[in-house]
Write a structure and sequence with these properties.
The protein is α+β, with helices and mostly antiparallel strands. Helix content is 37%, strand content 29%. Strands 3-2-1-9-10 form a 5-stranded mixed β-sheet, sandwiched between helices. The two termini are 34 Å apart.
């Protein structure tokens, strides 16, 4: 081991729309925080990021802007995203001078321009070598699927910005569907529901809390009601209203239908031998969206396939990316190929 190797480390990143997770070789998952940045509007200096920035969301004054540099699974604000990646890496890399190799998980439907943006940001954050891997492939590796086997496996990875559906066999993605309907869109649907039906304006954080608390894809055994606080659109004053879980389910229904339609389209394009494998092995749900109550049951009802929620679905992608960085030579076939410009 040379001196440079001693002062460098290999890092795996799940650069998600909602959360950024970082895995360091030999240490495991060392960071899991919201992909949110608070910065000074005048100087563009980052004031806070992650959990601290999330606490400021919706409460900032005119000198501060709180933003999410990732949208729909890809970088929307290059400068702020680069600063966020650099700051997160600096935070977890105590005593280490540089990152020798970084593997970043990206949506399978990412464009060449978007891939280049991720690579550039990682390089500017100090990486000497950057590799990209598709999120559904990484999720499959993370939950322990043998992606090299001549057997079909179907993964549905529902994140904050995108839902990734892929059929995987022989270390490759046979067919895929990447739609920009996921956790964020569900939050937006809840916000719109309150606007239309209750004349109340609620924030993104409140919408997410409601989705996590009472959101569901199928009727609950015991329907519940919750108190929701927001701003009255007519009077402009703070107001509290009561809503039931059935109403929230109705608000989320369109997003769920679109995800199920994308699953059907992927199944229609799947070769018959692999379809038989999926019927035997079932479908694996990963990502934060997999935790929506009853979603596995709803997909099972609509497709007649066995559906399983992965253990700890939120960290499936970063765990897979971590396995790849730990054994880069063994997993070289699953990486997204570099295209020269």
């Amino acid at each position: 081991m040379g001196l440079f190797d001693f002062f460098s480390t290999d890092i795996a990143i799940d650069l998600g729309t909602a959360n950024t997770l970082i895995y360091i070789k030999g240490k495991g998952i060392v960071l899991n925080e919201p992909s949110i940045v608070a910065f000074d509007k005048n100087s563009k200096r980052i004031i806070a990021l992650g959990n601290k920035a999330k606490e400021m969301q919706g409460r900032e004054h005119k000198e501060i802007r709180v933003t999410r540099p990732m949208r729909d699974g890809v970088i929307a604000d290059f400068e702020i995203a680069e600063g966020m990646i650099r700051a997160f890496i600096k935070r977890v890399r105590a005593g280490v001078l540089s990152s020798r190799r970084i593997v970043v998980a990206v949506p399978s439907g990412v464009t060449e321009v978007e891939k280049r943006a991720v690579r550039d940001s990682a390089e500017h954050a100090g990486a000497k070598e950057v590799h990209l891997i598709a999120e559904p492939m990484s999720a499959a590796i993370g939950i322990g699927i043998d992606v090299d086997a001549p057997v079909g496996n179907m993964i549905i990875d529902i994140g904050g910005g995108t839902t990734e559906i892929a059929v995987i066999a022989l270390s490759g993605i046979v067919n895929e569907e990447s739609i920009r309907i996921a956790g964020d869109e569900m939050n937006y649907a809840i916000m719109q529901f309150f606007k239309r039906n209750h004349n109340i304006l609620i924030g993104e954080r409140t919408a997410e809390a409601i989705k996590c608390e009472v959101g569901s894809a199928v009727p609950l055994k015991e329907e519940v009601t919750i108190q929701v606080k927001g701003r009255d659109l007519v009077g402009g004053i703070p107001k509290t209203t009561e809503v039931g879980s059935a109403e929230i389910r109705e608000a989320l229904n369109e997003c769920i239908v679109q995800i199920i339609d994308a699953v059907r389209q992927t199944l229609e394009r799947t070769p018959p031998e692999l379809s038989a494998d999926i019927l035997d092995r079932g479908v694996m749900l990963t990502g934060g969206g997999a935790l929506l109550k009853g979603l596995d049951e709803r997909i099972r009802m609509e497709t007649n396939l066995p559906v399983h929620v992965a253990d700890d679905p939120l960290t499936a992608v970063v765990r897979g990316t971590g396995k790849v960085i730990d054994n880069l030579n063994d997993f070289s076939k699953v990486l997204i190929r570099n295209r020269r410009y």
